[in-house]
Amino acid sequence: MATATASRLAVLAPRQLPSAAGRRRHAPGPGFAPPRPRALSAAPRGRVLCLAAPAPAAASAGQDRLQKVPISNIRNFCIIAHIDHGKSTLADKLLELTGTVQKREMKEQFLDNMDLERERGITIKLQAARMRYVMNNEPYCLNLIDTPGHVDFSYEVSRSLAACEGALLVVDASQGVEAQTLANVYLALENNLEIIPVLNKIDLPGADPDRVAQEIEEIIGLDCSDAIRCSAKEGIGITEILDALVTKIPPPKDTSKDPLRALIFDSYYDPYRGVIVYFRVIDGTIKKGDRICFMANGKEYVADEIGVLSPNQMQVDELYAGEVGYLSASIRSVADARVGDTITHYSKKADHALPGYSEATPMVFCGLFPIDADQFEELREALEKLQLNDAALKFEPESSSAMGFGFRCGFLGLLHMEIVQERLEREYNLNLIITAPSVVYRVNCADGETVECSNPSLLPEPGKRRSIEEPYVKIEMLTPKDYIGPIMELSQDRRGEFKEMNFITESRAKVTYELPLAEMVGDFFDQLKSRSKGYASMEYSLVGYRESPLVKLDIQINGDPVEALSTIVHRDKAYSVGRALTQKLKELIPRQMFRVPIQACIGTKVIASEALSAIRKDVLSKCYGGDITRKKKLLKKQAEGKKRMKAIGRVDVPQEAFMAVLKLEKEVL
Ligand SMILES: Nc1nc2c(ncn2[C@@H]2O[C@H](COP(=O)(O)OP(=O)(O)OP(=O)(O)O)[C@@H](O)[C@H]2O)c(=O)[nH]1
């Protein structure tokens, strides 16, 4: 049985990154006709699961899973792992082996059912599945709650962990413990979960499960003497995992007599039914038709439909303490049923909400502008639709002389940003210009006021501000010892403050730095990977705001300021960034018929300057030989034409130029 040393817990402060995933989910995959409910028989109160008859099509597969199971036979668990260590593949195999999803219905990575996720091979949202497993002739109900695998969504991970009693800790037996393994395992320990170590990918020639088991014992302090060796891909060790879930994870406590408290661990917007809320009943009982209330925002609804996830939705009459299910109550936006919130009864409210709720706070902002100005309204509609399903997405209109009308949007992190952008372009057919992402600065103004600024072009004038604070993150990097040097160099270059370094094994170290979030937004992760030949991994959490000597760097193209290219940089880096940025823009902006100066300025002072030379037509080509005065006249006419063009000419700045600020980091450093 897994145990943890108390000292390990102290190593990581509770995650402060207030992140929550946008719930983006498609309707249940093909092969899953929505279940038609029939007469639902109420289960006796107390220690049993409810009963329901599913639609005939789903009946054979579903009925078993809806059978009565005493609470002592329920196990709620999740899978935690570093990215790519095989969490989704293992989840698929568990679903397959328990007959929850028939093999013919099985698409690879069933739980990752969003196209984008499938393409990128990453999990960005949660989903749950109820499985039936018979061990020693005793039927068990295993509720798997899937967790997202990216740091942007760590708040969601923590909420899904809070809905479980145990976790499978999946570690790639060829790679060993990575930064995210650690971060997730500490989150699980904070939630008092029973942890079952699983060494995956033993089929790989490079797998060394013994070494990795030892590594887990040394680094995390988990007893790995009976760690399960498995290959999710080949289906090896899956039965052992199912047995361990039953024998090692404790059943939920029977508190069905208490006032209702159910923890929301996911929600998504269904255009026909409104928001579907996924929850775990912690205390009490919830019935179809109950008047419920969300404790964080006090809003009340009637639960029109409740059910279980198998993994398609199947209606039931009642859900008891310990169970996992869904409800729909004509809720209009996921923002009203936020992950982490507590559901209670309107007439018999619980005294306290469940702990751990936090609002989604966007960390990264960028401007989104339609290339075609006519698409502005379409962009607004698309953002509104996405927001229905993504409580963390924030946006407000923004206009700029260079870019026209668009929106300033806030995201949890870079992955969240990329996903939203990609969905806008793919699903809504919008052509967008996206400005470089910025973090949220806090400006202490001379008049004593503090304003938050997520748009560099809106930074108060130097005379009006006393100081600027920027968000800092603690970043923990795990790396083989050979790459410690390059990684420290990278962190130092990004204004990192060294905190500590521990050798977690003989050959691997954990290096901790604190650095400005703005230095991490951009290519930090890519750089970390390239400098460590792909071996290092990282994890970060917000540590708060700190004052820094920052200045606003403006860009003028052809004498016009382009607000969307303004950035906030550290004073010491301003000159090198300005120089590199003007050079980069010179490469990226196409030459015009007239000369275009590109300048970087701080206030009114120009600190770097480049110029695009004009495309010149050889107006003298036809004057073969000929009179000098005629040639002069032609050249003069050409010069006048160019002057006029320059005055009225508009320089179209291509999309790459707006991302130039990010790309030039490497050249500046
Ligand atoms: N050889 C081998 N490959 C595996 C095994 N399990 C998973 N993989 C492969 O590892 C890759 C990552 O697996 P996923 O299941 O997507 O990993 P994940 O942890 O869910 O990743 P995220 O969703 O990004 O968190 C895929 O290419 C899988 O096919 C295994 O047991 N053996």
In percent, how much strand structure appears in the residues? 25-35%
Structural class: alpha+beta
> What portion of residues is helical?
25-40%
Q: Count the beta strands.
A: 31
Task: Return Rg in Å.
Answer: 29 Å
| Bound ligands, named by name, code or SMILES | guanosine-5'-triphosphate
General shape: elongated
Average pLDDT value?
80
For the termini, the CA-CA separation is 48 Å
Number of helices, where a helix is a run of at least 4 consecutive DSSP H or I residues? 18
Q: Main sheet, how many strands, which sense, barrel?
A: 8 strands, antiparallel
The poorly predicted ranges are 1-61, 117-126
Query: What's the arrangement of strands in the largest beta sheet?
Result: 11-10-16-7-8-15-12-13
Describe this structure in words.
It is found in: Plastid, Chloroplast. 26% of the residues lie in helices and 30% in strands. 49% of the residues are buried. A hairpin with a 2-residue loop joins strand 2 (128-135) and strand 3. It has 18 helices and 31 strands. The site of guanosine-5'-triphosphate (GTP) has 19 residues, from helix 3.
